Amino acid sequence: MNIELTLIGKPGCHLCEDAELAIDRVLAVFLAANPSVAVSIAQQNILDYAELAARYSEEIPVLLINGKVHNYWRIDEERFARALTEIAAEVSNE
Question: What is residue 21's three-state secondary structure?
Answer without folding.
Answer: helix
